[in-house]
C-alpha cells in the first residue's frame, strides 16, 4: 500500500450497499436493494416555501455560524413531539441536532468506545452502525434477533461475560429485518440493561413509519439514565437535508457537543432553520399519514405476491412499518447467487451478509418496498419467484 492509512480505517468495512447501489440505480433496473424514501413523498413545495421565508426574512442569521447543540426551537419541537407521541418527557437541553442520525453513531463511538471495548449489536444489525462504530475498533458481540425483539438470554450472557460499553439496537421496524420489539421485550431489555448499568443506544430512525396498531413506548422511557435515543427527519421530511438528533442525559450531551465541535462545529444551520419553519407551518402528522398509507400498501402488495409466488421454503418477516422485508432462504440457497441471477434480469435485491459483522447470513436478503411502484413490485417479485423456484430444483 502506498499510503500508511490508520488501523482504524483499514479495519472499517466499505458500505456494501453504497457500492452495489452504483449498479442497481441504472434506470432499467427494478431495485429493491436500496433504502431510499420515496421521492414522490417529499413535500417539495412546502420545503421550498419554508426555505424562501427563512432566507428572505432572516437570511443574515440563517446563513451565519450557529451553536453546536442546534437551533433551540427545533430542539423544543423534537422534545414536544416525544412527549405527544411516546409520552416521553425530555428537556430540549437533552437534545442535540446532528447532520443526519448517522452522525450520532460516529459521535457515540467517539465519546464512549476505546480500542478493544466490547459493543453489543443485534444480529442482523444495521450496517451503517457496524461501519460507524468500527472506526473506534470495538469488539462486537451479537444478540440474535427473534420475531419480537432480541434474545434476552443471549443479551444477559453477553452483559455478564463481556461487559459491553453499550447495546445498539433499532426497536422500531428494524433495518434490515423490519422487526419491531414487543412491549414485553422493551420492558425486559430496559430491566436487563438498567440492572447492568449499561447504555442502550436506541436508533429510532423508523419510529414514525408505523402502519397500524398501538405506538409502543421507546425503551428509553424505562431507562432515563442509561437510554440514548437517535432520531431523524430523513424518512419523514427529507434525507438530503441531513437532519437528525440525539437525545440523552445532559452529561452525555455535553460530551457529544465537544466531540461534534471537533468534527464539524455544528449541523447545517440553514437546514435546521428551514426544517423548523417547515414543521411549524405544515401539518407533519398529515404528511406522515400520507407516507405511511403508501408504504403500507406497497408492503402489503409485496407480502401478498411473495405468499402467492415464492416457494414455501422461503420465509419473510411481516413488518408493521419502516421500509424493509427480510427474507430467509432455505439451506443451500445463497442470496448472493440470487442477487447475481436477479441482476441478469434487471432486478436488484440486497444480500443479507453485510448485516452480519462476523460472517454468515448468506441465506438472507433485504427487500425494500418504499421506493418501487406497484407495477415494478409485481414484475420484480415475479422474476424473483422464478429464480428462487429454479434454484430450488
Ligand atoms: N439508522 C438506521 C437504522 C438507518 O436505517 C439509517 C438510514 N439508512 C440511519 C440511521 C441514518 O439515517 P440518517 O443519517 O439519514 O438520519
UniProtKB/TrEMBL annotation:
Named cofactor requirement(s): pyridoxal 5'-phosphate
GO molecular function: pyridoxal phosphate binding; transaminase activity
Domain Aminotransferase class I/classII large positions: 49-383
Record key words, sorted: Aminotransferase, Pyridoxal phosphate, Transferase
Highest taxon of the lineage: Archaea
Keyword Transferase applies: yes
GO BP terms, alphabetized: alpha-amino acid metabolic process
Keyword Transferase set for record: yes
Pfam families: Aminotran_1_2
Family: Belongs to the class-I pyridoxal-phosphate-dependent aminotransferase family.
Subunit architecture: Homodimer.
Name of the protein this chain belongs to: PLP-dependent aminotransferase family protein
UniProt source species: Methanochimaera problematica
